[in-house]
Amino acid sequence: MQLFDVIVIGCGAIGSAAFQAFASAGLRVLGIDRYQPPHCKGSSHGQSRIIRKAYFEHPDYVPLLQRAYRGWMELELQADEKLIHQVGLLQVGPIDGSVIPGVLASAAEHQLPIERIASGEIEKRFPGFRAGNELVGLFEEQAGYLLVEESIRAFIRSAQRAGGILHIDPEPARWRVDGAGVRVISGSREFLADRLVLATGGWSGRLIATCGVQLQIVRKHVHWFANESTRYRSGSPVFYFETRNGDFYGFPQLDSRGIKVANHRGGEPVYDPDLLDRSVDSQDRTEIELFLRDHLPDISTRATDHQVCMYTRSPDEHFVVDRHPQYSQVALVAGLSGHGFKFAPVLAEAASDLVFGRTCSLPIDFLSLERFRC
To answer: Could you tell me the pTM of the whole model?
Structure first.
């Protein structure tokens, strides 16, 4: 039976980053996943993710993002591959909505550069984008997008070069505390470790429920639409529109499929992640098409591709990053609520601090389980 310093269960964005961090530190680390990462079974796929600093969700995320940016750039150097593309982010919404005030609050508190754009100036500044008279714009130059599958491959390869072992088995891994350590069973194999990190995404619900928190898993759709306009290619920013009908986000054209667009709001409940329905939701696609007609009028509504992923939402839609309340040798990262990928390097650091009992230098108290006990 193999003995490890740390085992990481789940090798999506956060798990693969933790796998790499432990291996790079010279630890004996085992990463476990049911499928070869990157894969399309969970939440860490779909070509691209937005990365930004002026975080409308909460200003306390900003110091984590500043460290995450450094982590992504360090990974780029190790991988000798471009992973983060700072093409800028155009955010559009009502002045009294959630996005615009939230971005301005985070920017003010952390002295982040943000360009304000009046509604009548958005189309002049960014041809191809239309806001109307009721919405205003903000532009964050340092924002952009991450390449998803390439990033996970880079984490995995870096970990393996440093001696990390990746174990794949389609059966869900099981674990139990064994004395001061942890015993993990994956398929026909059994492993022992001093510590365990759980980063199981949409499969975290039952575990987090035992910690007194109910997660909601929802099905989310991403769509690609044909593009024949140069306005949404090189030089175009990532975009996020808060509207009455949804919070729509998207990316410049990255390949022959055209542009990728999705609605961050809503989602259909998922009761068993292993039985996730991957079919197209016609209502969701119609809502996207209506958004494009109103705000990106030069884009075709001819769909070229579609994928499904899962959001694992906590009750307040902030992350859950903490030690297991009963077992100090177990750390968990869950409930990323559809906005966690960009934090992968820094959440890996946090998991390392937690599982090794170190005082965490990162401001993660607002993400602890304790907030749900108040």
So the answer is: 0.97
- What does the buried/exposed string (b/e) look like for 106-134 if buried means 16 or more CB atoms within 10 Å of the residue's CB? bbeebebebeebebeebbeebebbbbeee
The answer to whether the beta carbons of residues 221 and 284 sit under 8 Å apart is yes
**Coil, strand, or helix at residue 350?**
helix
CA angle at 133 for the pair 131 and 135, rounded to the nearest 5°: 55
Q: Which token pair is 109?
A: 């508190």
Domains recognised in the chain with CATH numbers: 2-47+149-213+316-373 (3.50.50.60), 89-141+216-312 (3.30.9.10)
Structure token pair of residue 327: 């077992």
Q: Give tens-digit pLDDT for 282-338.
A: 999 999 999 999 999 999 999 999 999 999 999 999 999 999 999 999 999 999 999
Cα 230 from Cα 205, distance rounded (Å): 43
CA separation, residue 352 to residues 23, 246, 323, 335, 349 (Å)? 11, 36, 10, 18, 5
Start-end of H helices in the chain = 13-24, 62-79, 99-110, 119-125, 148-161, 205-210, 282-295, 344-355
CA–CA separation, 351 vs 360, rounded Å? 9
C-beta atoms surrounding 188 within 10 Å: 7
